[in-house]
Amino acid sequence: MKLRPAAAAALLLLGLAACTNDAPAATDGGRTVTDGRGQQVSVPAAPARVVTLSEPTLDGALALGVTVVGTTSGRGQGAVSAYLADRAAGIPIVASVAGPNLEQILTLQPDLIVTDGTVTADDSVLGKLAAIAPTVYVSPTGADWKAAFTTLGEVLGKQAEAQQVLAGYQSRVDETKAELGDRADDTVSIVRWGLGQPSLLLRELPPSKVLADLGLRRPPAQDRDGPGHSSPVSRENLDQLDADWMFFGTLGGATNPAGGNTGDAAAVGRAASQTMLDDDAVATPGFTALTAYRNRQVVPVDGSAWTSSGGPLAATVILGDVAEAMTAS
């Protein structure tokens, strides 16, 4: 007898607390992959109903043309990351960075679930997800985005396509580097600004990796590895934000130390960053004295691509913004 979704969900909520990470076996002659925790997981050879529970796994799955039936809202947002809105139109939201909605995921009948360390995913949560469908924890917090995307391609049975995507990214990097000219020696800052709290993106995060691929230098305060999310900066230390260029993004609301934002979840995109720059940042004592501001080289950008976690699609947005700003003259 096939249970109705509501009944199945009720059984899930009653019974999953005791389950382990032993995923249902793939039924299409599937493969075994090693996840980001070193555990082996049996996955379908060609997954057709994939749930992506993090921003990087959604980005990567869309870049590979995979059918995504459920996903997560972007950090500080009520919907998917703004830069993915067109590609992800119509995909149900069944999670946030704080965790998944198991009942909603169950009703989607996925054949594969993918997640990573950019969202809350402890062993208990992963075990409950694995009782629904094979679940792969792709990569830990702070992992190199290209390595994580390569692993995702293997998990999704799209290894060749993933290499093609990365080759296309590298071609774009080479083109942009050639166009930078003398500005290749400029320093570049990445700032996320929430009401009451600016923060920096340090070297281990995906946007910083893109700048490193371009050979662009970071100012001393940002030329270091961090905790795997943005690092808050007090308003008394605004000099840590300064560089020749500042790419300035917001996700709306106030930044918290764990890397998330609170407040207006709709305040994303370049226009939102411009508003945050005009209404809050320039009113902060010392901001208008920064080199980037005085030289009119503070560039408002889409914070969902620049100041959160992503994959090749976010990296492409970042490359485009750098080219537009720094190769314009």
Automatic annotation (TrEMBL):
Q: Where is the signal peptide?
A: 1-25
What InterPro entries is this protein classified in?
ABC_transptr_periplasmic_BD, Bact_iron-sidero_bind
State the organism named in the record.
Spirilliplanes yamanashiensis
Q: What is this protein called?
A: ABC transporter substrate-binding protein
Q: What is its main location?
A: other
Q: Which PANTHER family does the record associate with it?
A: IRON III DICITRATE-BINDING PERIPLASMIC PROTEIN (PTHR30532), IRON(III) DICITRATE-BINDING PERIPLASMIC PROTEIN (PTHR30532:SF25)
- Belongs to which family? Belongs to the bacterial solute-binding protein 8 family.
Does Transport show up as a keyword for this record? yes
Q: What is the lineage of its organism?
A: Bacteria, Bacillati, Actinomycetota, Actinomycetes, Micromonosporales
Matching entries from CDD domains are given as: FhuD (cd01146)
> What is one cellular component GO term in this UniProt entry?
outer membrane-bounded periplasmic space
The yes or no answer to whether the keyword Zinc is present is no
Q: Where is the Fe/B12 periplasmic-binding domain?
A: 49-329
Q: Which PROSITE patterns match?
A: FE_B12_PBP, PROKAR_LIPOPROTEIN
Kindly state a single biological-process term from the GO annotations of this entry. iron coordination entity transport
Provide the protein's localization. Answer: Cell envelope
Q: Which UniProt keywords apply?
A: Signal, Transport
